Amino acid sequence: MVNMESQNAELIKEGLPQSERFAKLHKMARTQMQILLKNRTKEKFKKMSIPICSKGQLSNKKTVTFLSRIVTAFFEPCQTLNLMTLN
Question: Does this model's pTM top 0.70?
Answer without folding.
Answer: no
